[in-house]
Amino acid sequence: MKYKNIKSILRGQIKANSRTLWTWKKGVNEEFIMIYKDYGDDLPIYTPVQLLDLLTQTEKLTSKNK
């Protein structure tokens, strides 16, 4: 799976030095959520740098397993 759009958003936030946090619900119905306030779910929280790194690693692993 390609994460072109979300990776572009993350790179833009990193370049702008934005102070944002993200969650990533993995699975069949993947969902990325940028956290604004009062987040209360049990999903892990990532900075843009962390999530971009994780997505890149996931793509590499996925492409090797094909």
Features:
about 70 residues, 3 strands, single chain, alpha+beta, three-stranded antiparallel β-sheet
Helices and strands in order:
Blueprint: H1 4-15, E1 21-25, E2 31-35, E3 45-46, H2 48-64
Helix pairs in contact: 1-2
Would you mind describing this structure in some detail?
It is a single chain. The chain is an alpha+beta fold. It has one domain. About 45% of the residues lie in helices and about 20% in strands. The protein has 2 helices and 3 strands, in the order αβββα. The chain has helices spanning about 5-15, 50-65; strands at about 20-25, 30-35, 45. It has a 3-stranded antiparallel β-sheet with strand order 2-1-3. β1 (about 20-25) and β2 (about 30-35) form a beta hairpin. α1 (about 5-15) runs antiparallel to α2. It is globular, with a radius of gyration of 12 Å. The model has no long low-confidence stretch (mean pLDDT about 85).
How would the global form be characterised?
globular
The side-by-side strand order for the widest beta sheet comes to 2-1-3
What portion of residues is helical? 40-55%
Question: Strand-and-helix sequence, N→C?
Answer: HEEEH
Note the main sheet.
3 strands, antiparallel
Q: What portion of residues belong to β-strands?
A: 15-25%
Total DSSP helices? 2
- Would you count the extended β strands for me? 3
- Over the alpha carbons, how many angstroms does the gyration radius reach? 12 Å
Low-confidence stretches: none
What's the short story on this structure?
The chain is of the alpha+beta class.
